[in-house]
Amino acid sequence: MGIEQSSFIKACRGKNEGRIPVWVMRQAGRYLPEYRAVREKVSFLELCRTPELIAEVVRQPIDRFGLDAGILFSDILTILEPMGAPVSFPEGGPRLENPIDSPEAVKWLHDFDIEKELAFVPEGIRKIKEILPDLPLIGFAGSPFTVSCYLIEGKGSKAFDKAKRFIHAYPKTAAELFELVSSVTERYLRMQIEAGADAVQLFESWGGTLSRDDFLRWSVQPTNRIFTALNESKVPRILFVNNLAPYTDLVSGVNCEVVGVDYRMDLADAQRKLPGKSVQGNLDPAVLFGPLELVAAKTQMILESIDDPNRLIFNLGHGIQPGAPVEAVEMLVKTVHEFR
Amino acid sequence: MGIEQSSFIKACRGKNEGRIPVWVMRQAGRYLPEYRAVREKVSFLELCRTPELIAEVVRQPIDRFGLDAGILFSDILTILEPMGAPVSFPEGGPRLENPIDSPEAVKWLHDFDIEKELAFVPEGIRKIKEILPDLPLIGFAGSPFTVSCYLIEGKGSKAFDKAKRFIHAYPKTAAELFELVSSVTERYLRMQIEAGADAVQLFESWGGTLSRDDFLRWSVQPTNRIFTALNESKVPRILFVNNLAPYTDLVSGVNCEVVGVDYRMDLADAQRKLPGKSVQGNLDPAVLFGPLELVAAKTQMILESIDDPNRLIFNLGHGIQPGAPVEAVEMLVKTVHEFR
User: Does residue B209 sit at the A interface (CB-CB below 8 Å)?
Assistant: First the structure.
């Protein structure tokens, strides 16, 4: 069976009449004992830069749960170090050595030879394809707004207030910054597709902190530009928006095949408001910490609510959290696969 | 002119034909030099517990900007210490000594004599009323979900994952916890009204991290219960929801006169989806860091978008941030007051 005939790719194209495909955001992660075993030997950054280990951790949740797609193991901030903004990953999230805390600081950033500096990414993809030739593989990157949030804030944040202030106080400099990040991201995703990625996902993790006019300017415009530049690649493009509800109508205009929906909104409502697109989501990751019957019931509730299951990829509505029981993921996958 | 004839109270009741009222969430705060001068002399907690100082900081932004309502100076976690969960306020947000990190820990919490333990709150309100007898004064509390988030997490958090896991893992214990917090909150708000508060606002600061069915169970139900118990008081009830968009239809059923809307959603859209209610909001606080022309333009854009200005109270869509320029607040207030 070719990748094009997989339930995942068919669902991306709105033509899946078989079993509903399911994968889990951050499925290769700390909740898995076999992943933690790898991480005892290497740091997060070493793991991201070692093709053999990338392939190993991508394979782990596929083997364990029978998921319908894999996703490249990397980080949305991988592009920053060669751009001039080194990042470390201590416990508790990313830390930038030199956050872009003034308009002048943007000048430190620069374009770079992506094939050379990030060669471990396409090598990782080729390794995954060697060991999992029939598995649809998703490449990914952060949205320009989300990546810029970390660039400006220097670390995670509740509402990325500094980043939002920056775009209001220095709109021209912010536009230059977004131009650079967008251009790098476009080439980064194209490199992933050329190495073998069967679909690509942009993570708009923090755009959901913007007012609607700012979302249009700083999220929809740059993501649309990136996706449009990938038109000829023909692979399905997925835009995940954490907190979609305020912007659903704006996102319906983005040039992509699939919209990933967070857990706050009804997935069926999102599907109705995104005509012609497939949807991906959206169980609340916190539910995995409840009893298994709750996991099954809430999964079933979402599945039954959907008008057009041919255009559905099941997932969580946000990344799975460390400590989530593997039994809960098993129950989630079983419930989805038995639905039809 | 009596309080009932003020633009603020008339707008709460949907009957304001005059100037649009405006106030600012966290208007007595660190962005004001005169507030920082008070805080150089006393800690945040001392300020919250000293009626004369409460009245002084409540008055500061009224004197400076000519705002149309004042709000009690306090913290939504004030109720926790007498409930058995002491809180401190170092820089960077609240810290609980003993977070409720297990179902057993809920037993440490207890009811208390609110008139006695929190006497400084009604005393503060009476002091404010002495010096500002004609100013509509808003009392407030945190929603049961928001307060429980801090109780369980022990501090601020990006998405309050621990709190969400708790309600899924221990729904019965969570229900008991919400019952206690709701009962205290109801009596706390009633005490504020009896002391002279002309309106009350519940801050649903973190309910916007819930799926819709959980929002109905853990936000709408307890806030509705509290507001309904205050029916006979006849004062306007305001529910502020940070991230309203996913839940607007659910919130339209809450027993209150006004819905406070965050900056993500179009305020006009919110007003259309909340028939019979007034709306309060919703300029993005980050805009205050831009040029004054931007502040005026974005304020004007919101004002002009509204179908029914008789049911509008202007505000930010979230609390004003430390460092926001006072000139930006002046421009905001001027733009609103000159609108009609």
Answer: yes
